[in-house]
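Colleagues,

Please find the record for the two-part complex below.
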Amino acid sequence: MTTTAERPAVQLPPPPKRRRPLLRVSGRRSLTAWLFLTPTLLILIAFTVYPMVQALYLSFTDYNLIRAAQWVGLDNYIELLSDDAFWNAFGNTVLYAAVVTPVTVVLALAFALMLNQAFVGRAFARTAIFLPFIVSLGIIAIAWAFLLDPNIGLLSHWLSLVGIVPEQGWLSDPRYAMAAVMAVGVWKNVGFYMVIFLAGLQSIPVDMYEAARLDGAGVWQRFRNVTLPLLSNQTLLVSVLALIATLQAFDQIYVMTRGGPFFRTETLVMLVYREGFQELRFGYASAISFVLVIFVFILSMVQFGYLRRKQVTY
Amino acid sequence: MKTQHRRRSRERRSFHRVRPLAVVAALAISGLALAGCTGQGSGGGSSDQTDASGKITLDFWNGFTGPDGPALQKVIDDFNASQDGVEVKANIMPWDTLYQKVLTSVAGNDGPDIIAMSASRMPQFASEGLFEPLDDYYTDAGNDTEALATAAVDASVFDGVNYGVPVNFTPMMMYYNKDLFTAAGLDPEAPPTTWDELAAMVPKLTVDENGDGKPEQFAMALGDHETVPVFASLLWGTGGGIANADGTKSTLGDPASIKALDFWVSLIRDQKATQIGMTGADADKLFQTQKAAIEIVGPWMTTGFDEAGLNYGLAKPPAGPSDEAVLADVVSMGLPAGTSDAQKEAAYEFFAYWNSAEGQTTWADGSGFPPNRADVADKVTASPYPAIFGAADVTDVSKTLLPGVASGGPIMETIFNPSVQKALNGEGSVEDIFAAASAQVQAELDK
């Protein structure tokens, strides 16, 4: 490996002892482990691996669910490259992920820091922030359709009091539709990531803060030099999960805008859905989803690579 | 105090050394999206149900979720009581759900035995091999199909083969709110009969009392997506349209089509004739809450508007400068490909009952839809609406949109409606937007 170029001059601590291989196939202990893993693995194989392999196969075919799949080789992938709908959806997906991921992660951390303090109403605030994550899509659709309705919407009414009057519905206005689904995307998921951060915050030993305080560190310094580094593991997890989730944005877009107005909010997964279930082109839809898989995979690897360097053990 | 908080050395954490397990994990997580998106219909049990007594049960999927649902159920109950060889079971779900589920269900052999859908969607599914040809239904004199409205029967023809039998056939009519007409100083008994009359009324019927630029009341409630294709039918008024009669050539960029689009886009953008960005359901709500004075829609809304206590009138939609064609909506029922002969026979028995004089009288009376056959018009007395929607001067000029075009659904949802929305939002000139749309339509028609 090309590691010598970057080696710092200072003496590094000796590398930790190499760990036992995780998946050794023999031995009584590993047999027990495999037995415990079997149910999960079976579910994973049946509902994730098999559909993925099947989708990979379908992406090389022309298939409509009724007739037998026709092998078309790389045709679907070639068609993708010159498909405006694909590039539009790709752009929307990247834009959505680029905005929603950092906003969600930062907000989740901010909420976690706030709600890690003791104050009256903390339990209520925690619940309020977490609730959207577990609320069903149907309810979200109805709630937001009501809040944003141009004629009877509560939010529209409040905004009109301060002079903001959109002529049409927020969700059908090409200027605001993407922002609206982004906002709901953040709102829906931020509570989940907040809980992960909260767990991380509570596992940081109090004595570290005491030590920092004795050394004269202020609030910002304690956050910057104690909290943030010790939260690295959670940050890695949350940012990878959040990025993957945003690249797969579908649900609130489906219930709020259906990808409209004129495809302004159509993400790749929405396009997969449209090509598959509306245009009945399951082969082409599978090809799009595989491009997405590869894209998500590459980005996740980059993230793992970058953030793992900041991983901590203590 | 000894903690080992330290940053791991750089080279061990380099990108090249990412552990295989992490790779597998990432792949598995990213794969979750696929699992939900490309699932095939799971193989269920066969739906060929014949019980011990030899009675055949037919699962009838349809989308009559509104006030027309009970009327449909009444006809089915009557049919089930009229004989003991066949039992039809209605499975009523929103149309959206039906379109999403039908293909996977049929592919999984766990689907409906009879499928109702908009005749405009039938060619698409027929071209994919979902439907069984039903031409032999029409050649059997016993089924009494001669009495049915021709336009209703022809609506489900694709490539010379008929895949459906009509459930209903109805023109879209103009509903207008008489109270709002009176309030605007207009004669409540004189709805607009031409585009020009309508355009003259728009400034009076669109009201922005507080002057914030957003009217509190609109002249019209006209949906631009997820709706019966009223907007597309307006192109007929100038002799334009989306495609020529046999569905081979796009006419969306023709001067006649552009003329109609210019008229409606400027009426909506400049005069705020309607709210932009509404679905069909939004438009219904706008009219129902008296925030719009005019809506063009089918008879299924009469019950809702009556219950809301609206004082409304019904009239033929305003005629365009060169044509007075009116949009007709047809729902047909078909059978999934591979239906057994016994089931087909049972279904034909139900189709014949549905379209019999008795069945159509019950249906029209209960639903407000005009009957599929003119010879029962005088028997329909319980509801005034079948006579209004079935009036000859309306049905004579009514026609369906893009009949027999396999890509009719995709053309409307992915080309026409988005283009209208673009134009209404001022994202380019009507000519440019629809010239591009026309090329896309042509590409779909050529497929």
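Confidence is low (pLDDT under 50) at residues 1-47 of chain B.

Comments are welcome before we finalize the supplementary table.
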